[in-house]
Amino acid sequence: MERLNAIKRLYNWVLHWAETPYGTWALFILAFCESSFFPIPPDTLLIVLALSIPARSFTYAFVSSLGSVFGGMLGYLIGLLFFDTIGIKILDLYNVMDRYNYLQELYKSYDVWVVGLAGFTPIPYKVFTIAAGAFKIDFPAFVLASLVSRSARFFIIAALIYVYGDKIKWFIEKYFNILTIIFAVLLIGGFIILYYF
What is the C-alpha to C-alpha distance for residues 177 and 189, in angstroms, rounded to an integer? Predict the structure, then answer.
């Protein structure tokens, strides 16, 4: 329960940046950090910013993609050079260190495709970026898979908001509480899937 409350506080802190002039920078930094160690995905801030100015939806998606790919590179670097000191602590934080051998088998079987799948789903991406470095996955292929999967995820969100604009804004405002619960379930579900899969 304590952990869920901490995630909720972080989530609210992330959303508050949309109400400041630093929203775009905050989105980049959030996307960067989420790909290597931070628990809250940038989708929440991306949605709020895009809803506030639908015409800039694709700009926000680009910022999210760029931050996420660079953050993924940091995660890769942590796994490659600092796994024993930093990487293990991050994986322990997300309670997945006992799944490390399973991740290794996934990478042996599917190589960079694992990164592509993780980048598009609610499964915590930072776990896969760190593991990719630890298992010495081909770096250019890793960057390409990250770019494709993360961009696809963020640009789909941006396209929906750009196309549907006020209609989707009305829907989100009307069902915000339910959508927040769904988002939280997906976020926690991603951790659970990673832990038990």
Answer: 18
Token pair, residue 129, equals 């970026």
Query: For the chain, which residues make up each domain, given as ranges?
Result: 2-196
Cα–Cα distance measured from residue 73 to residue 76, given in angstroms and rounded to the nearest whole number: 5
pTM here? 0.79
At position 179, the amino acid (one-letter code) is L
Find all residues with CB under 8 Å of 109, minimum gap 6, and list them: none
Helices 139-174 and 125-134 meet at what angle, rounded to 10? 180
Q: Tell me the pLDDT tens digit for each residue of 19-57.
A: 778 889 999 999 999 998 887 888 888 888 888 888 899
| Per-residue burial over 88-124, b = 16 or more CB atoms within 10 Å of its CB, e = otherwise | eebbeebebbebbeebeebbeeebbebbbebbbbbbb
**C-alpha to C-alpha distances, 58 to 22, 86, 105, 116, 157, nearest whole angstrom:** 17, 34, 36, 21, 9
- Token pair 């619960």 is found at 181
